[in-house]
């Protein structure tokens, strides 16, 4: 989950000129109070305090919150860990605000998508679950939100957070079995009001483009037809790509990107996030290509020259080729059987849940008088004022820097169900 991945992806997006079809904003740093909307206060306070210098003195809390680098933990402490969480979480929250206000149709935060973090602990290199926080914000304005996860690992943190509600449907396609986090059986379907609103497609090693497409498209189409979401969150974990260090699938950048293209085709407000991915040159390839898909821009298969050009040797190509020696352990019969079972579960739903209207909740408006506050819990920043002055422009006339329009009058929905 090294932030260095963001630099590589950023340079490809810029050097493919994809930024010219996007509005690019610097997000605010999420405050501890914003994180506590989902996470336990004591966990966030621990996250604020812990550092490499004091982690030995906090051994009991380290164990309690699943931090460290042992066989039983996978959330290492590093300098600036809380700053890191503030940045990627703020990016997701600001993206959702723009979607809620109707300022964009698609919002991207490749640094987000950390789907394993739980309410009171870290997990799987994930510290703050920006996805859950983003969905909670979407639910203020959208009656139903669909979450789709194409990471190689099960999106357990997001599923767990919404396991008993019918306002959010979670759909995860992932490796299952002796593989982290070990959850996401097809029998895990939700509980109470959320029964049948958790959809899991457990997979074996070797999934390729054709196999993935044969299940992804029909399942998502049936989910859309049954659940009728008004907004979509798509987690694009790149560890499902061929050749990933921790992955075991054989999906190419084209196959991964086809999932993005298919979901985009439904025309719903869409939040697109990153996630896993442990061969960074392939992560940046995938996210740059998927950015091109989202902005409807064809790009060359030849990697453009950039500051990290040498990372893409020896072929310097954008698209990956599958590993011809990797066996696909997912038989056609296995995939068909599980697809049919999921369809049966979806037929058990009586229809898309309705939500009564109520007075608008407090809107995450950003006050100019708070911009310079030292405490990030008090400071807020107007994202409309923070496009970088130079980095995303060839010259001063390259894009029109129009003021951000006012939010439309929207009657949001009850989020208490």
TrEMBL record:
Biased composition (Basic and acidic residues): 376-400
Binding site for a divalent metal cation: 151, 153, 239
Limits of the Histone deacetylase domain: 1-293
One GO term of the biological process aspect: epigenetic regulation of gene expression
EC number(s) recorded for this UniProt protein: 3.5.1.98
Molecular function GO terms recorded: histone deacetylase activity, hydrolytic mechanism; metal ion binding
Binding residues annotated for substrate, in chain numbering: 74, 124, 278
SUPFAM superfamilies the UniProt entry points to: Arginase/deacetylase
Catalytic activity: N(6)-acetyl-L-lysyl-[histone] + H2O = L-lysyl-[histone] + acetate
Active-site residues annotated for this sequence: 116
Presence of keyword Nucleus: yes
UniProt keyword terms in alphabetical order: Chromatin regulator, Hydrolase, Metal-binding, Nucleus, Transcription, Transcription regulation
Family matches, as Gene3D superfamilies: Histone deacetylase domain
Keyword Metal-binding attributed: yes
Chain residue ranges for the region called Disordered: 351-417
Subcellular location(s) of the protein: Nucleus
Family per record: Belongs to the histone deacetylase family. HD Type 1 subfamily.
This protein's name: Histone deacetylase
